[in-house]
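Assemble and predict.
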Amino acid sequence: MKKCIITVVGKDSVGIIAKVCTYLAETNINILNISQTIVDGYFNMMAIADVENSKKELDIVAVELRDIGLQLGVNIHCQREEIFEKMHRL
Amino acid sequence: MINFYEVVETNQMIEEENLDVRTITLGISLMDCIDSDLDRLNEKIYKKITTLAKDLVSTGEKIESEFGIPIVNKRISITPVALVGGSACKKPEDFVTIAETLDKAAKEVRVNFIGGYSAIVSKGMTKSDELLIRSIPMAMAKTERVCSSVNVGSTKTGIDMDAVRLCGEIVKETAEMTKDKDSIGCAKFVVLCNAPDDNPFMAGAFLGVTEGDAVINVGVSGPGVVKRAIEKCRGKGFQELCDTIKKTAFKVTRVGQLVAGEASKRLGIPFGIIDLSLAPTPAVGDSVAEILEEIGLERVGAPGTTAALAMLNDQVKKGGVMASSYVGGLSGAFIPVSEDQGMIDAVNAGSLCIEKLEAMTCVCSVGLDMIAIPGKTKATTISGIIADEMAIGMVNQKTTAVRVIPVVGKDVGDMAEFGGLLGYAPIMPVNEFDCSAFVNRKGRIPAPIHSFKN
């Protein structure tokens, strides 16, 4: 399984998760775990997703998600899980 | 499983603290390109580089966006050209054609620098070494992306003072030939002692003859991340400070190792080493000087600077070594002046002088780096500066280097502007007392004794 981590940070508004999840579904990316909190009106979301069967290359997905974030006024990152794994786990 | 705070910490390092991988450098051996016919040699060099490095930049960019980590530079290092061009080049102009070929190849594969227009003359110069060295000013003036280096000494061989004398003249000539751009040619030329074969950082990168046919070497960075981490240690003891630096260096290096492994796998080229270096850029918050100031100095250059730097350098290595399977290159904190806003500020404030920088190079890599000096400085004085720095490297069994820029037409109080990653620098005063009788002696300084250490 090839995993990536999607983070969304920014001002809360209606439909952020819906927009992101719709895109992931259309691209055939399966969400394994999702968590979300709102602190002082700031939206924080993290999802772990399986990109093994993604219809698009991961670098394209990262760019397209970033653009969706720009439309929504939030920052969206989609990164391979290894960068966090390597940095924080022995 | 990875938690939210760890993800946020990593992304904060990247976005706010300038965490990046400083360079992926593809080392390419040109030994199999050697030919006695100059045109054929150039053709073979161009073909080998553009074939092997065809996908270097695009692969780097793909890794950048997949992992969300910037990879600032993609570069190439090659076998020292003095070895490759030896049988084909009969005059300095012949070597310049190779420099032009390298420049063309670098542009074709979109790398921003190619290093290895070099000669290794730690004990003596061959005819072709000397021709290459004499061709450096013209090569630096005619090309944009070619970096040049000369290794003039080592702990095992001593210092070749004939080469040191010649290099002083070459620095002056290079400055003169690129005087319309603040003598920028000198920013691409470095004189080294104990130069490593696997250095990924410019301008001293070349692929030594001890290396394989092609290899991926990666240079990490992250002064901003270290600075931010130790802000939490204000007023605390050395134990806590050192532990924080080590942990941070570990994290930074693990990212470098990850990127190196990916690049090696995707390009099908073996992984060589990670260079554990704190490499600053002119960007605010990406400065080694600011780390030293955070440790407790009002300004870099104040008493205590050398000790603070020694400690920093050592902790970075201790933390980084465990994070990587192979460590090599220069590995240490860089203290270039023009590429570090904190260093520039310290020079302008009058707290940092060349002599203090020289002392600092005793405890860190790599040497007197990117220092602008008055254009009127004599060649023999530059050779004297080089000899001093080489002696530090020779005696302390470490790499040292000199990359000074005698900016033609400018003097103390003026500013030299190099642009981009090379930054800008105030012209620093140089001790003007004469050393020509010393520099003009022929021969070499013998290798130091390796016992009776005191």
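Chain A touches chain B through 25 residues (CB under 8 Å).
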